[in-house]
Amino acid sequence: MGDNVAYEICPPSAAFFGFIGVSSALVFANIGAAYGTAKSGVGIASMGVMNPQLVMRNIIPVVMAGVLGIYGLIVAVIIQGSIDPPQNGVSVYSLYTGFAHLAAGLCCGLSGMAAGMAIGIVGDAGVRAVGQQEKLFVGMILILIFAEALGLYGLIVALILSQNSFSCEVNQ
Q1: Domain V-ATPase proteolipid subunit C-like, which positions (predicted)?
Q2: Torsion, CA 154, CA 110, CA 63, CA 53, rounded to 10
Q3: Predicted confidence (pLDDT) per residue in 150-164, tens digit
Q4: What confidence tens digit (pLDDT) does each residue in 62-93 have?
Q5: What is the pLDDT of residues 8-39, one digit of tens each?
Q6: N or C: the chain end with fewer CB closer than 10 Å?
Q7: CB–CB of 114/29 below 8 Å?
């Protein structure tokens, strides 16, 4: 491969996209987790005033929202471990790999953020409803599971995307 072609395929700036993928996975997933935790927590606090014996039972939306942050952490660590540093002053990390890692980070992060928003809204309304009518608990849990699945889908696709790579050869 000629030097000019190698530089175009594996420029020193290619790692930037990989690191943006790392930060996107963690930041967006944690935004979703924080929103879901806060919104559900407000519902639990409101419901707990009228029905305090149900507070521990209705903590499930908060736990489910917290798992979304773990999804982002997993993808961020996997991508970060795949970013190759330059060897002998030459980048071996390709644009293809950088874009794949960016896509993986965005996939996990944005899916986690959407799932966190869904969990927060359902968790808030759900725990308030369960505080008034305990028979609604199973229905709330089912809806929360489907909301959590959105984040899990993003995690699975991000793991698949993070395995895409193209390595540039370093001439010794």
Answers
A1: 20-79, 102-161
A2: -130
A3: 999 999 999 999 998
A4: 999 999 999 999 999 999 999 988 888 778 88
A5: 788 888 899 999 999 999 999 999 999 999 99
A6: C
A7: no
Handedness of CA 69, 156, 98, 165 (dihedral sign): positive
Q: Which two tokens stand for residue 15?
A: 């790692």
- Encoding tokens for residue 35? 């929103």
First-residue to last-residue Cα distance in the chain: 13
Say whether domain 14-162 belongs to CATH 1.20.120.610.
yes
